[in-house]
Amino acid sequence: MGRILAIVVLFLGLAMPAAAQTVTPVEEVIETGSLYNDRQITVEGELVGDFGVRGDGTVWTQLNDDSYAERPLRESGPHAEGNTGIGVRFDGSLGFDLEQPGGYRWHGPTVRATGIWHFHDLNRGGESYLEVISYELITPARPLEDPAFWPLWLVGAGLLLVAYYLYWHKNQEPSRA
Length: 177
What we know:
The protein has one domain (23-169): CATH 2.40.50.140. 32% of the residues lie in helices and 32% in strands. It has helices at residues 2-20, 26-31, 67-70, 73-76, 150-172; strands at residues 39-53, 59-64, 85-90, 106-107, 110-121, 127-139, 142-143. A hairpin with a 5-residue loop joins strand 1 and strand 2 (59-64). The chain starts with a helix and ends in a 5-residue tail after the last helix.
């Protein structure tokens, strides 16, 4: 009996880290934030906006896990929903070495971040955020392709040709003085 109990405890102990790594969708954290207050959670998404480095060595940014994080506008066209993201705070001791946040011309790094969720933290002016204790880089930041809008380029080139022709034609007429 004692041997079976030891095996069960061993398997439960092995399963606990896996359960701690379950990724919680950001939308769920936003909708039911008070349920996660002061609890460890793991979220996954693109870091966007700005890497706000503070005097105490912490870095603040936004983590989005919406459709824009998966398929940026510049590469896939318009989407039907809004952005979904949470504030994240990285301690300086984590060795924060990510180079470029996501924005209009960049897809930011995608990370899996584990930390303590603070819901309306009174010590931070009521801010809700994830205080990151560890993170894993899934994909690095990358520049987004800028698809050329060929019809606009052709219209512009055509207008330049018309302007040049009119200028040239006006200067070729004999003056009537």
